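Please, is this right?
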Amino acid sequence: MTEHAAARPAPLQNRSLPVAIGLGVTTTISYGTLYYAFGVVAPEMSRDTGLSLTIVYGLFSASLFGAALVAPFTGRAFDRYGPARMMALGSVVSAALLFLLSALSGPIAFAALLVAAQMAATMVLYEAAFATVAHQVAGRARRTVTIITLIAGFSSTIFWPLTVWLGQSMSWREIYALFALLHVVVNFPLHLWLSGTAVGKRRKVSAPATETVEAAIGTGGPRRQAFFLMMAAFGGLAFTIGAVHLHLIGLLGEIGLAASAPLIGSLIGPAQVFGRVIDFFSGSRVPVIRILLFSTLTLPAALVLLAAGPAVLPVAAAAAIVFGLGQGVTFIARGVLPLELFGSKGYGALIGKFNAISLVAMATAPVVAAAVREAYGARATMLVVAAVSAAAALSALRLNSLLKRL
């Protein structure tokens, strides 16, 4: 792959670490305030708004579909205006929507603002961060993306207990008002600084990329085939992760592991971080396509082990660790592989399309898994989700074969 670095005053290796740390901090806050906190405060939201808990969660799923609708447009805006600038705008919009959620009452306003908040999230979560990496430090994207995901991997670890702790003395509305302030005083300045590293003191409508990477795949049939295979792989992974995140504790309880279910579930997070640490130290020695293969193969393997193996703690714990390892490197593949194969030109629009498919899969997965679980039970649900993940693995294997022929 050929890299063309535009003339900039700061060496690439000196700029990539601050970019990675800055984006790691802001995505940690964005995921924590816009995604993870919701699961903690949803019951209080239900009581406060008069909506059933099922409707509250249904609105959140609907908000993911709303985010999927705007994701391609957000991606094109990354290319046109610069992703860091869009992240700065996203910080302001996210803060405003969180504050409005905390201030306005009534179920209609609540529903509209909840959906709008997830639409705004497309400007401040991983895909926005990856687009910023592709725009500013594309030549060191692999290491930079890994650092970002390493830092942001602690978002749930920080914001779940933080939200619970705040909830002991604050209402959900006060918590959301506080979280809105985080976007203003932390995320917005960091994103504004990042936009400055991209364009310096030049005032232009469109922000030129400071680092570019050429596409490894040219135009024509192979490019289209690679695009659809990657889309299928990313969509299958998102479906699997979305289903497991919501249903794992309940599924473990149904197979006789209710008492140890929280412990088993808690193993996924550390395993996820460990997988990213391994990738950080392995660096470019392991091609990113192999990272995708590893992810798509480990997730179904873990689910089959859990579904077909004996319902004992060691087996379930091993399955959780394997699942966490695969999940941990999924976002690294999602950030870096499109850049390596299709180049940095138009990367924002491309990752916006992948994000849209992933959001639809994540919104659909809990509903499908719940229907299968109700009709056929826990083990069948695990096998169905594993089958979707296995289809993602087949797509990744076909993509790997295609790349070998080029």
Q: What stands out?
A: Residues 12-49 form the longest helix (38 residues). Residues 136 and 210 are 5 Å apart (CA to CA). The chain has two domains: 3-213, 221-405.
